[in-house]
Structures are given as C-alpha cells and as structure tokens.
Amino acid sequence: MEFTTLTEDEFRKFYLAHPLKTFLQSPEIGMLRVKSGWQVDYVGVKKKDTIIAATMLLSKPQFLHKLEFYAPRGFLLDYDDKKLLKFFTEQIRKFIQKRHGYILRIDPYLVKQERDINGDIVENGENNEDVISTLKKLGFQESKHHEQVKWMFVLDLENKTEEQLMKEFRPNTRNYIRKAMKLGIQVRELSYDELDVFKAITKETSSRIGFPDKSLKYYQDMYKLLHDKGEIRYMIAELNLKEYQAKTLEEIESLKKQIEEIGDNHSKQGRKKSLTIDLENAKKRVKETEKLIKAHGDSIVLSGGMFICNCEEMIYLFSGNYIEFMQFNGQYLIQWEMIRYALNNGFKKYNFYGISGNFDKKSSEYGVYEFKKGFNGHVVELIGEFELPINHYYNLYKNNIAIRNTIKKIIKK
After folding, report:
1. Helix, strand, coil percent content, the chain, rounded in steps of 5
2. Radius of gyration of the chain (CA)
3. Segments of the chain scoring below 50 in pLDDT
4. Four-way CATH pick for 154-239+299-381: 3.40.630.30, 3.30.300.130, 3.90.930.12, 2.102.10.10
5. DSSP symbol at 239
6. Tell me: domain 2-109+128-144+384-412, CATH 3.90.550.10, correct?
7. pLDDT digits (tens, 9 = 90+) for 125-155
8. Which family does it belong to (predicted)?
C-alpha cells in the first residue's frame, strides 16, 4: 500500500463510485470552503496503482495560528478493513504533522445503530460500534461538538410508487398535501436572480425561531457550483391570490346551490348544517384574501426549501416558512413535489436531514421531527464526530476551551 496525494480528478472519480459518498465530500464543497479561507488537499492510498482509500482534507489556521484539519464526513474506505484504516490514519497523521497541524476532525457517514421511525433501536439491525472502538484504538476521541448533523430522518424510495408513498404518509400529512393542491398552490424552482426570495424566507424563519441562517452569498455560491450539474434546487410554494379568490367565490355559489336544493328536507338537515358552516368559512376566506391582496399584491410566497440532489439521495438541507401563511400548508406540498422528483429521477433516498435526536414530545425541537415523521421513513443516527490529536498543541487547545467554558459558567452565575 502506498499513501499519496491525489489530483482533484482522481479523487472525484473515486468519490463518485464510493458507497459512503455524500455531497459534503465533493470537490465543489471544497471550492466553497476555499472562499472562507480553507485549503483543500486530496490524499489517498493506492494498491497496485488502484485507489482503495481517499479523503478530502480541509485545513485552516485556528488555535495559535496552527492548522486545524477536517475531513468532511470522514474517509472514503472500508472501515471494516482495520489494516487499511490504521495505515491511512497513521499516514494522514504524518502528513498533518509536516504541515504543523494540531488536530484532525472526522465525522464518518456511518450509521451508529439502526433505528426505526420512532427512534427506537432495531434489534439485530445495522451497528457500527466496532468501528467506533477501532477509531478509539487508533487515537481518535469522541467529540461533544458536531459540525454536521448527527441525527437525520430518511425516507427510502427504492421499489416504491407515488401511490404507495402517499398511502404510507400519516393521514394528516396526506390531508395537508391534498388541501394545498386544492387551493391551487404552485411549487416552482427559483433562478439564480431570484435567490433573494429564498433568503428572505430563511431570514424571517431564523429570526423567529432562532437558528443561524446562511448569507445570500452562500446560497448564490452553492447555486453557481452545483446548479449546472443538476445537483441543487431552490424551490418555493406560492399562491396566486386572485385565482384563489375566484375559486373561493365559485365554492360559495356551489354551496348556496346545494343548501337551496336541500331546502326543508328533514332527512338532510344535518348535511345542510354542515354546508352552512362551510359557506360561512368560505365567506371569511374571501374577506381574508381581500386583505392579503391589499397587503401583498396578487401572489404570495408561502415556503421555500433548498435541496441537494446527488449521491443517490435527495437532501432537504435548508428551508423556511412565513408564519402568517402557515395555514396554507405550502411546506407540505414542496416536500411532496420533491419526493416525487426524487422518485422519478432514480434517487434511492429522500433525506429530510437534521433532527435533534430528542424524542420527548415536550421538547422544543420535537415539532421538526414530527413534521418529517408524517412522511414516513426512519431515524438515522450517525457515529458522530471524532478528533485525532496530532501534537501537544491539541492539549493546549482543549485546556483553553475548558478554561473559556468555566469562565462562561462563572459569568452566567
């Protein structure tokens, strides 16, 4: 076995063919990191001129101007091949030492233990505790910090049909999708020049619920890097209020006619009462829609989502909703349209991406999981992030963090 640097082209070909690949390991993500001050290296192991292991190594001066190294989503290799894993780790350690780095972080795209839709461990399911043990023997330490998500929610698409998928959704989820369709909500893709529309959605959402948002430049850079390859889509759900108003007025006329036809028929008074309630609700919607048209014009944007489309899985990476328009359920229709797109374009998985891993219904983060759970699927727990100390600066770095955390606790008191 020979440790070697790789060209971007060599790495790309190996990456695209590897079963553990995910978009975070792509050269395009490396290019994005370069814009924020990181350097990119590609290294690997060859056996008889054939690449058998590889990784993208990102590096950037951090603690005391020493280099932090990060391999997004870990090494691309067979983690069960302990000899190969040991050799690659040792050689990367030497590579980093020569570059005066103090730490290597990895977060492999490996399931820790298989879980079901409720987050419960599947008996005799996939388990990579042995890999964790091997990494620790090689000097890696489990990190409490995770730059990437550790818990996800995933819907398998293989051998499924649209009808089967819809049938397996929860009743409420199906109803919300059908209601959105009935209202005439449209889902469409944004162009590069419209990305400010998506940014406005995420800005409103992040300020409302307190999650960190990305910059418009980030969304634009991702578009430039991935869109021409068909690997990213920015989608919005929007409602034409004029058309919605016209449909509601038609509904009112239909309800009036049905009520009139029932008249005093005693056997149908229950039905008449129900139709009367529907009529009053429709009249309320007309008034509400008039206010919306006056405030926002003929059309409103309801929700948005950013989707990564590569590596055989569709990833629902970022999203947002306008709270005042949540009743239209645009976010449900976006999911359904993108699930259909993924299914019809050969993707094996639809990855709803991050959840907290806290399945307590009282948790403030439970709602995100509950929304994704409505589409069926299962919880995925990855093995998490690991740190490999390279030299004594690592201990100084950890001590510095401990001191800062202690000071923060004292200040809070």
Report:
1. 50, 25, 25
2. 26
3. none
4. 3.40.630.30
5. E
6. no
7. 999 999 999 999 999 999 988 999 999 999 9
8. Belongs to the FemABX family.
